[in-house]
Amino acid sequence: MQKPILYLTQFLTLFSVFQQGLSYFLTVDAHAEECFFDKVEVGSKLGLMYEISEGGFLDIDVKIIDPDGELIYEGLRESSGKYTFAATKKGAYTYCFSNQMSTMTPKVVLFSMEVTEPEKVDLEKDGQTGEEGEHKKLETMLRNLGSALTSVKHEQEYMNVRDRNHRAINESTNKRVVMWSFFESFVLLSMTIGQVYYLKRFFEVRRVV
Hints:
Blueprint lengths: L1 H18 L3 E6 L4 E8 L4 E10 L5 E6 L5 E8 L1 E7 L4 E8 L8 E10 L13 H73 L7
Antiparallel strand pairs: 1-8, 2-7, 3-6, 3-8, 4-5, 4-7
Helix pairs in contact: 1-2
């Protein structure tokens, strides 16, 4: 009976790690600021990853504020970034994305907020049996594995966003090159026809009746 309960506990542990590392898409309008927060305990590890997927020059202002209102991190006109830190205070840490520098273009942001809770110290560790100790080690390994898989998942998502942005830039550049080539061809053809017509008129002999 203990093994099914153990497997269920391990699954819930791994699932909870994935739940703490979800990614979100956010649209920040021009002259607007959107903020989110995480309530954590002292010693927790927090991480913020973000990537601008659409809008303007693909830049946005980012800042992180601690529970006392002090600024921890600030980035101006950034396209992507990753910031990890340890919580030194208990309470809500705020993440803000500001698009106040934009006059009319909204920005679409892909971001994720990761929280790794500190490991709890077991006061009865010396009284644990060998099997309980193995279960504890297995649970710790599952948490580490879940965190690593979540990081890989986020990296893949950000790589997909970057690939989409680069593909859009390449397609836009290719379209402009094609349009410019057509324009140059049209100008060259017009100049050729004009020169032929001018030379024909220049060498034309006019008869006076």
